[in-house]
Known about the structure:
Shape: rod-shaped
Largest sheet: none
Number of strands: 0
Helix content: over 70%
Amino acid sequence: MKIKTRLRLNTFISLGILILILLSFAWSFREMFKATRNMDLVNEMRKIAFERIVLRDDYLLHKEERARIQWLAKSEILRRLFESASHEFTGSEDLALLKEARGFFDITFTSFSDFMEDHKRNARIVKTGFDFTEAESRQIDQIFLKAYALTDSFSRLHGSALRKRTTARNSAVLIIIISSIGGVFALVLNSVSINRL
């Protein structure tokens, strides 16, 4: 092989390494951006879920119409966030967690909406204090449990998105290191062979 051809080979190896590194960066940034966006979405969902818990407890303590209206409004926002999340999340594990969280949300929404409507319909709303029957207390206990299960599902979704972001970053670094070492090794071998010629 001629020296000129070997020099060209060095150029092609260098270009190949550069292209591989750029592709790794592009893939890594895309995956990290997607994972960060999903984390932000889950954080927003967690925040709304926490606000719903505060408004629910406010309603149970004070029986105010304001708390009921705000709880319903927050529930509608969370429902829209679930719709957005169903388009953003792609992995089977994430979709299963999202489906589980949606189930908990639906249960809490239906149960607490029914509870508030029953109180309103029966005109049993008092200004302060608790006046729950045993059946209502059990229903409230179930609502509490499902609400906490919902926040747990959000925490696991957040953890999954964080793992994906870390994996994307680590994979990109590994690809860059391997391609750089392999490329430098190929360049050194080719340069040694040019030197002999």
